[in-house]
Design goal:
The protein is mainly β. The protein has no helices and eight strands. β2 (13-20) and β3 form a beta hairpin. The mean pLDDT is 92.
Length: 91
């Protein structure tokens, strides 16, 4: 699953989320810089949370919650400053 979004009003930041279920690799970039990188081959948890702060002058907290579905697929919820921004679902 791959998605890109922009956050911030005064300072714009580009967040890229890339998760490959077959390879078990996860990469989260903010403005082309890696923020979170992990590889997991077995025992994928049902729920994972990734938190980070973007911005120099105006700090913006971003939280991405990754939910694994029963058989196949994921549901990702993106929160900015504890407000739901967008939900991404896919296989």
């Amino acid at each position: 699953m791959k998605f890109t979004l922009e956050v911030g009003e005064v300072e714009k930041h580009r967040i890229e989320f890339n998760y490959n279920q077959l390879a078990g690799s996860l990469l989260i970039n903010v403005d082309m810089q890696p923020v979170c990188k992990s590889v997991r081959l077995l025992n994928e948890p049902v729920h994972e949370v990734y938190r980070f702060v973007v911005g120099q002058m105006v700090k913006t907290e971003v939280r991405i919650e990754k939910w694994r579905k029963q058989l196949f697929g994921y549901r990702n919820c993106v929160y900015v400053d504890d407000r739901l921004l967008q939900v991404f679902e896919g296989n």
